[in-house]
Write a structure and sequence with these properties.
alpha/beta, FAD/NAD(P)-binding domain, five-stranded parallel β-sheet, four-stranded parallel β-sheet, 12 helices, globular
Length: 398
């Protein structure tokens, strides 16, 4: 059986590892730590702004010009990847149409375009009547959310644990796993609502799945939906746990808390990656390797004091637009946010002459350059589409 090593356990790494396991690879997933999913709202953003708000994310992706990653991935492979992940996780975790964006409320009450979302958020489209918050949950400003959505705030003095003045969203989610807690909450909230209202709550209605949302809707006699809080995000944690479960089911071996620090080469192929370990170095040998270490936020890309950007593990060439390192519009569309590794149609990193650097290496997700994933809300689609395309490329090579 062919072996593959995937480096990085964010959305791109997990997607690539699961798909490679499904198509017959013996996969090792090497993770220095958690990926970014626990910090995410648990949705799948494909293309939100290009630069205006996007209604059809697949159409916008098909029109993205080079060097945007979508120009390499292509609309059909992006569609295949999105359909695959939605079907793999099922409607318990992701719902929506991949050719249409929803507008769902954020933790500030703004409306944010997204493509796929947890079913617990689906009712967030349209008029909202009330926003329930908890005095002890400081990470969800219910009054602000309600004001921006044109709804009325309902603030409950209802701690997740007795006598605690402040509780996190994760603590609340674990409390909502208990049917008794859900019943006590409903008894406190129901007198403040009118039957049939559409009611927003912070995304804390259960730590493992969204079954409690349906129960709470019945108890409140209202249409309840969740709004993601600031990190740590309960929907992001749910999605991360679901993907980890899929990885285990696909036979993926996970090596957590270990960082790849070097590699060895045999002609034009990588033969092994070196893993940091006490004592003598450890090497993971494989037939194929997938780099899914992300961008600057996860040190998949680094910049030194001279402004030189590099990919630190394999020393891959990085395309970086010339710009000052700091500028007033950094988060709007700073050129550095488009820096990254360039890849060919097989997702192989390429050099300045567009030739593959290593024939058995693929790069996926945020380490690929050419997109401002923050401004575009395109990072999830790039992660899934590139991981799917890379896995299919390696499948043909096997």
């Amino acid at each position: 059986m062919a072996k593959a090593v995937v480096i990085g356990a964010g959305l791109a790494g997990l997607t690539a590892a699961i798909r490679l396991g499904e198509v017959g690879f013996n996969v090792t997933l090497l993770a220095a730590g958690y990926g970014g999913l626990p910090l995410s709202p648990g949705t799948v953003d494909v293309f939100g702004y290009a630069p205006k708000q996007v209604a059809d994310p697949l159409q916008a992706a098909s029109e993205a010009p080079p060097p945007h990653p979508y120009a390499v991935i292509g609309a059909e492979r992006l569609r295949s990847g999105l359909e695959w992940i939605a079907n793999s996780l099922g409607p318990e975790f992701l719902v929506g149409a991949i050719d249409r964006n929803w507008l769902l409320p954020t933790a500030a009450g703004a409306l944010r375009p997204t493509c796929l979302a947890p079913p617990s958020m689906a009712a967030g489209q349209g008029q909202v009547d009330a926003v329930i918050g908890f005095a002890q949950l400081k990470d969800f400003p219910a009054a602000l959310v309600a004001g921006n959505l044109g709804a009325r705030p309902v603030i409950l003095d209802f701690p997740a644990r007795d006598a605690e003045a402040e509780c996190s969203s994760v603590v609340y989610a674990r409390a909502f796993d208990d049917p008794g807690f859900r019943e006590r909450f409903a008894a406190a909230a129901r007198p403040l609502l009118r039957p049939g209202e559409r009611v927003a709550l912070p995304a804390v209605l259960g730590s493992r799945d969204t079954h409690p949302v349906r129960e709470v809707s019945g108890l409140l006699q209202a249409e309840v939906f969740e709004v993601a809080t600031v990190p740590p995000s309960v929907p992001g944690l749910r999605l991360n746990a679901a993907l980890l479960a899929r990885a285990r089911a696909a036979g993926v071996r996970m090596v957590n808390g270990s960082r790849a620090v070097g590699f060895s080469v045999d002609k034009d192929r990588i033969s092994a990656v070196e893993v940091a370990a006490a004592g003598s170095p450890e090497f993971l040998r494989a037939d194929a390797f997938v780099l899914a270490t992300g961008g600057f936020e996860s040190q998949g890309l680094v910049m030194d004091s001279h402004g030189v950007i590099s990919e630190p593990l394999f020393g891959l060439p990085v395309a970086a637009p010339q710009a000052a390192a700091f500028a007033a519009d950094f988060w709007a569309d700073h050129p550095l946010l488009r820096a990254g590794v360039r890849v060919d149609s097989e997702l192989r990193p390429v050099d300045a002459d567009a030739g593959p650097v290593h024939s058995n290496l693929r790069a996926v997700g945020g380490v690929i350059g050419g997109a401002n994933r923050i401004r575009e809300l395109s990072g999830d689609g790039i992660a899934i589409g590139s991981a799917w395309a890379a896995a299919e490329s390696l499948r043909r090579m096997k």
